[in-house]
Amino acid sequence: MAILETEELTYTYSEGTPFEKTAVDHVSLSIEEGEMIGVMGHTGSGKSTLIQHFNGLLKPASGRVLLDGRDIWADKEKIRDVRFQVGLVFQYPEYQIFEETVYKDIAFGPKNMGLDEAEIKRRVLETAHDIGISEELLERSPFELSGGQKRRVAIAGVMAMEPKVLILDEPTAGLDPAGRDKILQHIKNYHRRTKNTILIVSHSMEDIASFADRILVMSKAKLFCFDETVKVFSRAEEIEGIGLDVPQITRVFGVLKRRGLDFGKEVYTVGYAKELLLKALKEKGGLLNC
Amino acid sequence: MLRDITIGQFFPGNSIIHRLDPRFKIVITLLFIVMLFSGGTLLCLGIGAVYTFTAIFLSRIPLKMFLKSIKPLLPFLIITAMLNLFLVSSGELLWQWKFLKITDEGLNISIFMIIRIVLLIMGSSLLTYTTSPITLTDAIERLLSPLRKLKFPVHELAMMMSIALRFIPTLIEETDKIISAQKARGAEIDTGSFINRARNLVSILVPLFISAFRRADELATAMECRCYNGGSGRTRLRQLKSAPRDYAALAVTILFLAAVIAAGKLLR
Amino acid sequence: MENIIEIENLHFSYASEDEKEAAPEVLKGIDLTIKSGEFVAVLGHNGSGKSTLAKHMNAILLPTSGKVTVDGIDTADEERIFELRQSAGMVFQNPDNQIVSSIVEEDVAFALENLGVPYEEMRRRVDEALKDVGMYEYRMHSPSQLSGGQKQRVAIAGIIAMCPKCIILDEPTAMLDPKGRKEVMATIKRMNREHGITIVLITHYMDEAAQCGRIVVMDKGRTVLDDVPEKVFSQVEKLKSIGLDVPQVTELVWELRKAGYDVPAEIITENDCVEAILKLFE
Fold it and tell me: Domain span at residue A26?
């Protein structure tokens, strides 16, 4: 079932001034419950504006946003409830931390929802566990933590609202490879437990390739494509054409194909590339190993 | 939202007013203020108005922008006019209702007041509209530089002002971002009860202060790495050179000032 | 070639508030020399000590013990600190927090103003620096109108206006989008190639390190590898064990070698990888 849909969503910045700019242009899409989606597009493609419509931070100039089949702007008074159902984690979320303890900061969202203490506690403990924040850290000041830990606390703060849809804007920006892998792994853990829908914005095709069921690509305010990961990577050249990077390994297999070595499959992870190559080499028989 | 606020609004352009030396512009603006308050007759204000509108015309900035600059001060203007209107009791009585009285003198004074303040706002807006804040800071630094002999920290003050100007857009953008992030966590910022809003303000101010301190710290290191060592021995890329037109503008202003004073004295 | 940076047995720990308890060492005995004109990447995960090392090259931090010499100047020599900072400029991670002025060209001039360079020469050097980084058309813009990559190029221009022999860049691309990262990498490569400026690039992006002439890998306050990129990346297991990535092509070739196929280990470019695979299927 579709959990989040947009119908001809359009948004214009500074309407009626010389600086007018359409950031999202007639975008219609539908996201299914439980999906893990990668969102791509370079800076200024409209992807950030688009995701801020999903939880009602921005109001469409025209078109509609539907959550569970209902227009989120049908009742203006209820928009705050929409924000609890569609959680949005901004870029560099560690800069929004403000409470004295890690526990309190994670509890800020659930508290705003008006939950009782017991429920808040359950949620804080569960999300802290999902995101790899150990219990002894909960009573510490968040400002004593390392950069990667702070980021995870901030993400937990949104996760603890248990939104039906969780959107993360570049959750790995600026992290080193180990920190990046850790965060992605924790998000996957959370997904496994809650089965909630997750959207992750990322510039790294390598990262997206590692988790996404489907990929949403924005370009010049329009929806460039929204399709299964394999199918999106089969359009590697078009994707590069709009200024996005495809994984190095995809490019290598593109060249191999042009040079007459066609494996008939889209390759976007090293693991799969290795599998394909080893199988083909075995079939060829000219093994040098034992 | 916050992004719509423009502090020290500046309209880039290439008119003669834009090209005037900012130091002269500041001095001229001060003379202009003196001009507005030196004469008490309608003719004096008329001369002031001619001066203001000619300058606005020369700046090629639409008159609309100047009217906009008055708008936020409108309540203040109305209150001042009302006070003058009802509290001045000398002169011929024109209208009375219970204890409220309007006299011809009160009417005169309040009309004068309004015209004066409107011209004052328009004229000083012209200074900020045609001079970038950073140029203005620079000009102030140079005008005040004689005070350095009195150990007044002119350079430090100017540096602080120009860094503040540099970081205003950055901090506004950051505030916007933090507000959105806290709203996404259900904080009531532009809705909800007053107490809730006040409480949620903390969730915005704390991150904003932390970030501002971090920025200040990093900026200080970056400045040191670029050999910053206070104001002594510094040279400047921006050269302020006065041209004949600056002296001409100053002369015209002094002429107008003299005319206003003369009109006030002679035609009473 | 002469050495521009010489680091001898550098130890560093942040001064501990508690006198009795010794603060943990961040740098544990670094020996490193960088020759004039080199393009060196210092690669390491967060907390490996790479940024702390960079800060020693510009006298932002001073050694607890050991010695750092830059262009013949001991960084501990306070008398010559401006001289040192002129010959080794520093670019930081956050593009916003190192731009001082509201006008691009005035920011580029900032260091020259501080040094008291006469107007005519300052004008010439500022214009040249702006042209060098491709930001001349933006000289009258406000930094807030620029993209992250453009801001970082302005910061680089502000450094090269000082005519330094060496530029140290502390994770200059960590906060940029892919386009900005490419712009910055292209700019620093050109500075190295065309002006012979020594570049020390602190990064955790292996694809950037792969474009350098030499990679120094840091882990836990020590240098663990120091070689040309091909040799460094061929140590796939070692790099992975300290939380770093290798290029995908290197990883693939390593997997093939593990499976017993005869492919060269030192592959870091897509072309070499394609050729090696084609050869296997000949």
Answer: 2-245
